[in-house]
Amino acid sequence: MLEKLTPAAMPAPFAKYSHAVVVPAGTRMLFCSGQLGLAPDGAIPESAEAQADLCFAAIGHMLAAAGMDVADIVRINAFVTDRAHMAGYMASRDRHVTSPPPASTLMIVTGFTRPEFKVEVEVVAAKAG
């Protein structure tokens, strides 16, 4: 069982995330590569939110292939290319993560492999057994 922590001695998180997650010994771990907002047909949506939805859909497929689901996500690392894309990413993330939420970091970067990409998301997941 994952233990998601937000210690009372710390300020509350700024958004939907936990300050820390404890993963017990012997837990299976899944490390997902960063996912970009690319549809199966190769289309790249214009909005950061739609791109993030595609990122989380791909992550969902990887979790399912490992016998896991979003409740097993321990950490999210997300990257957006502009502050203007933070709200769209966060709206998507909040629809796709469980409560209590995993640990999370959101960074603003200068770009990805193609200029159309606005969001990239990677996760670490853990499940007993």
Automatic annotation (TrEMBL):
SUPFAM superfamilies: YjgF-like (SSF55298). It comes from the Bacteria. One of its GO terms (cellular component) is cytosol. InterPro entries: RutC-like_sf, YjgF/YER057c/UK114. One of its GO terms (molecular function) is deaminase activity. Belongs to the RutC family. PANTHER family: 2-IMINOBUTANOATE/2-IMINOPROPANOATE DEAMINASE RIDA, PROTEIN HMF1-RELATED. This is Enamine deaminase RidA. It comes from Phreatobacter cathodiphilus. The lineage of its organism: Bacteria, Pseudomonadati, Pseudomonadota, Alphaproteobacteria, Hyphomicrobiales.
